[in-house]
Amino acid sequence: xxxxxxxxxxxxxxxxxxxxxxxxxxxxxxxxxxxxxxxxxxxxxxxxxxxxxxxxxxxxxxxxxxxxxxxxxxxxxxxxxxxxxxxxxxxxxxxxxxxxxxxxxxxxxxxxxxxxxxxxxxxxxxxxxxxxxxxxxxxxxxxxxxxxxxxxxxxxxxxxxxxxxxxxxxxxxxxxxxxxxxxxxxxxxxxxxxxxxxxxxxxxxxxxxxxxxxxxxxxxxxxxxxxxxxxxxxxxxxxxxxxxxxxxxxxxxxxxxxxxxxxxxxxxxxxxxxxxxxxxxxxxxxxxxxxxxxxxxxxxxxxxxxxxxxxxx
Length: 313
Fold this sequence. Notes:
- By secondary structure, the protein is mostly helical.
- The protein has a single domain, classed as UbiA prenyltransferase (Tetracycline Repressor, domain 2, Orthogonal Bundle), CATH 1.10.357.140.
- Helix content is 68%, strand content 0%.
- Helix 3 (58-82) packs antiparallel against helix 5, helix 3 packs antiparallel against helix 7 (160-180) and helix 11 runs antiparallel to helix 12 (290-307).
């Protein structure tokens, strides 16, 4: 996979104005929300629905994607707002330290988006027959709380990667409860596998400003999908394809981290983030959902493509 795939376009290409939300430009809003990573949220939702045993119907699926996308974007906005002092020192190109937008505006947008995401969640769980209603809403409230906790306290938090992993874990739980009202063991196991993967990914992301990996053992969490997926891959078919694609993506990320000329941690992070789509594709393929599994590959490619325009970190 050529490294040119990850090169960003010059930021001057994305300077269209947008004054609809507190004077934030389109360029700043897209970067604050890391919208290039949204396809990974969409595949999380589809995997959660499939693993819950419910049918993948267009209306609830799209509403859940919208709801949880808003949760994600809100978390990214709040991440920049809470990290503003760190970014002034280490990442002055981020929108707040660069003077593109005020921290108060980003806080207001972040909490508003979180509220909007929860409102859409209320709509979908009460409109879906068999939905978990209060269970799904409780899980959504917990997800909102975990997002705020992570954003407010992750730089000095030794269990920050676990908190981030729990945020993704809860996306599967919210999706499953919203349409089925229960959390089958298969869904729970897959969510735990993604949690482990996110612990490894988030640990790598926390080293971005250091430009090096200080400890190697947390990278072992990235092996969880391959332990889980080995029996599925042994059966062949779509699960094997997704297993091998994810193995290639994680392998390429590790090559970037350990390359002799020095680690390229930002591009490794973005590749690992996109790999979430392939992990979901393996989950879905294991349930015999071939078309949805193929869509997960498309989501992986879409994430990589969008990351060329909007950095995923």
